[in-house]
Amino acid sequence: MENKIKDAPKTKDALKQLQADMRQLQALLAEGRAVQRPEAPVTDDSSAVKTRSEVAVQYSVSLPASENGAASYKTGPISVSLLQTENVTDEAAALLGYALSSPQKVSLLRALLGHESESASALGAAANLSTGSLYHHLRDLMHAGLIGQSGRNRYHVTPRGQKTLLLLLALAVEK
Question: How high is the pLDDT of residue 121?
Answer without folding.
Answer: 92
